Amino acid sequence: MTGKTETGGTEATLSYEQARDELIEVVRRLEAGGTSLEDSLALWERGEELAKVCRRWLEGARARLDAALAEEEEEEGGEGSE
Q: Which of 37, 3, 43 is nearest to 23 (CA)?
């Protein structure tokens, strides 16, 4: 259980693809059923943590894209005024 509930744990080192793939596996196991209530809750909690990791990666990617687009617009706007 190391790193499962700590924000600075293994979640910080997971790539988007790793977190997404593990999340897919968690969902598959939950949908398949056959696990105890305790195991299902643990899977649910892990899924929530993985979803947060994915969300942080996607928000970071969006911020980088927005910054790149804003920089491009500034460069285009500056060319015509010189």
A: 43
